[in-house]
Amino acid sequence: MKSVNGQEIIQLFESWSPKHLACMENDPIGLAIGTLNKPVNKVLVTLDVNDAVADEAIAQGCELIIAHHPPIFRRLANIRTDNPAGQLYEKLIKHDIAVYAAHTNLDVAEGGVNDLLADALLLENRSILEETYAEDVLKLSVFVPTADADVLREALAKAGAGRLGSYEACSYTSSGEGRFRALEGANPHVGSIGELHVEEEVKVEVVLPASIKNRVLKALLNAHPYEEPAYDIIRLEQQTNRMGLGRVGYLPKEMLLQDFAEFVKKQLDVPTVRVVGDLQSTVRKIALVGGDGNKYIYTAKRAGADVFLTGDMYFHTAQDAQAIGLQIVDPGHHVEKVMIAGVAKKMATLCETKKYRVEFVQSTIHTEPFLFV
């Protein structure tokens, strides 16, 4: 195992939950407090950052906090240490504890907040509720000597090119002849200086998401035997890596809405839920959005959901849902706490693959502000 700094940990985190997945305008994600340019031995994972969580990080000896809810949500005009927010920032800075926030990007990411909620509810045959991100697809065509084609194809595949759904190393090859004359100063792989050379070549074509273009081109140039390989890249009409907010899925079996409400309380560890709908109706198809999903009631209805599970449901939005025949279960915003164990486990696994010596600590501070009496 090897020591690691904060930047390396966050680079690994963003390979799973990159910033470009954020789907809220001006979402204050990323490093909020402190610096990542330092050694990190312990990371505290938490839903929120408040005074008690800061004390927990100090007591645990954590140098970094990864939170879902940004500790600085709106632009600051000042940092005053005579108010609670300023005192919190002061405490974190004095103890050299950095805070990194992953908000809506963690909602969208595969295995993120919404998938963790769907896992807890045992939802099957899942799909995205609302697509918020899709990546352009490129096609790379390159000419290479026939004898070197297998090596090149393998290098492109290792770089991530040629992945189609559940398949990898996909490519198309056509045969032909390549012609060139090497000039003075060249170092040709085949042929002689000043002579027109004809080489049996193949054209290898692969598709790739636009985000890995530079990585694939680097692999191509490293693996190709020619000094100046000929290739072209075109943008296709199709898109890939479609991701989005919320999930839609099916319960393992039908149940009454009243029983589903009880199931939610148990699975998400909440004392109570608010329900809109007929408690004796049968439900199976569930749409969910962690946190505040008020603006997605019509999306959930169009998805054919029997129930929409989300937090912070407004009174008038609940009435609108009732009017369109969409049943609601509101377990509160705090159910996003599922990310604490989920992120800690995911990051521990990712760091293990890199042989990083770092511990991920799950916050035990209950940050739900509401009491139920």
UniProtKB/TrEMBL annotation:
Q: Mind telling me which GO cellular component terms the entry cites?
A: cytoplasm
Which is an annotated GO molecular function term of this record? metal ion binding
Q: Which UniProt keywords apply?
A: Metal-binding
Q: Which residues cross the membrane?
A: none
Per the record, a Pfam family? DUF34_NIF3
* Annotated InterPro entries: DUF34/NIF3, DUF34/NIF3_bac, DUF34/NIF3_sf, N-reg_PII/ATP_PRibTrfase_C
Tell whether Protein biosynthesis is among the UniProt keywords: no
Protein family (similarity comment): Belongs to the GTP cyclohydrolase I type 2/NIF3 family.
Cross-referenced PANTHER family, in alphabetical order? Answer: GTP CYCLOHYDROLASE 1 TYPE 2 HOMOLOG (PTHR13799:SF14), NGG1 INTERACTING FACTOR 3 (PTHR13799)
Q: What is this protein called?
A: GTP cyclohydrolase 1 type 2 homolog
User: Which species is the source of this protein?
Assistant: Lysinibacillus sphaericus (Bacillus sphaericus)
Q: What is the lineage of its organism?
A: Bacteria, Bacillati, Bacillota, Bacilli, Bacillales
